Each structure stands twice: as structure tokens, then as C-alpha cells.
Amino acid sequence: MAFKKDEVIIIEPREMFVGRKDAPVTLMEFGEYENEDCAKANEVVKQLLEEYEGKIRFQFRHFPLTMIHQRSMKASEAAVAAGQEGKFWEMHNILFGNRRTLGTTSLKLHSKEAGVNNKKFLDDLVNGVYGWQVQDDLKEGINRGVKELPAFFINDVPFSGKPTFANLSAVIDSALKKTKRKVAAKQRA
């Protein structure tokens, strides 16, 4: 008699957002947790989410530069694992706040701080349960032409320039105006 293995459904990073689901603007970032510039950009993203509450949603996609940062892959896997319990954003911010302590044992402690209750968190991390999801993000980033981090896309359009609050706000404002024009045109039609 064969045993039926339980099917585990994994929430992919491309399905995880912060902000309103129906927001007119989507801000997507490819980044990693050990990168100093990504940590700075995370602070800008927090400001943007506050400033444009209800108008933008944010998605973080994993692009670990493992040749430079050996712990970035497992940190990304830990964020995906936390996302399975709806704790992605909490874990995301904790990882950036502790980017110098991202060893496997530290990741377990960070997960507790984020409110993750999964008893198998450490086992999942050691066994690379979420490794494929991180690899999928990495492949998508490469296909989108990501060369350096952080890399932002606003409504799927690559953002070029320094990811400051002013620079990103200007592009978000422009995207919001385009969205309003499209809605107005549909209403007239």
C-alpha cells in the first residue's frame, strides 16, 4: 500500500504584496538582504508606502548575489518561509535590520521575532524547501535585465536612477496620472 504524500502549496514571492491589492501602481524591487544599498532603499520604500497609502503596492523579489554575500540565499529563503504565514513584511524588515547576522541560527531567531510559528522553520531552511522560489525570482530578474541592486520596476517599467524618495515619487506620480487618464478615457467610451 503506497502512502499519499501531502501536497504542500507554497505561496510564491510573485504573489506576495504589501499594500492594497487593487492599488493602481505596483512598485517591484529586486534585491537581497546583505546589500547596503538595498537596506537604504528599504527605508525609502517604507516612506513611499506611507506617503502613497492605498495608491501603491510593493513587491520584493529575491536576487541574492551569492558570489558576494554567501548568506543572502538563505536569508531570502527565510523571508519566503515567513511569507507562508503572512509574516513576509515583518521578516523582510527584520532581515534588513540585522543584515550582518544572517546565519541559519540567527535566521531562526529572526523568524521568532517576526512572529513565525512554524516548528519546522529551521529544518525547512536547512533542507532548502524554498530555494526554488528564490531561484525563480533570480531567473526572472536576469530575464528582466537586472544587473545591479536594488533594481526597481514601476508598473513593470524599469526605473533608472538612484532610488531616492524624490526620484521614485516622481515616477510614481507620473504612473498615477497615466492611470487616471486611462480610467477617464474608459468612462468616456
Structural summary, described in words:
With 189 residues, the protein is of the alpha+beta class. It has a single domain, classed as 3-Layer(aba) Sandwich (Glutaredoxin). Helix content is 49%, strand content 12%. A hairpin with a 2-residue loop joins β4 (151-154) and β5 (157-158).
Summarize the structure.
By secondary structure, this protein is an alpha+beta fold. It is 49% helix and 12% strand. The mean pLDDT is 92.
Outline the fold blueprint.
Elements: E1 18-19, E2 25-31, H1 36-51, E3 56-62, H2 72-83, H3 88-97, H4 104-114, H5 121-126, H6 131-143, E4 151-154, E5 157-158, H7 165-188
Parallel strand pairs: 2-3
Antiparallel strand pairs: 1-3, 2-4, 4-5
Helix pairs in contact: 2-3, 2-4, 3-4
List keywords for this structure.
189 residues, alpha+beta, Glutaredoxin, 5-stranded mixed sheet
How many strands, which pairing sense, and closed or not: the largest β-sheet? 5 strands, mixed
CATH class: Alpha Beta
The helix/strand class is alpha+beta
- What is the number of helical segments per DSSP (H or I, 4+ residues)? 7
Do you know the CATH topology?
A: Glutaredoxin
Would you tell me the overall average pLDDT? 92
The number of domains is 1
Strand content: 5-15%
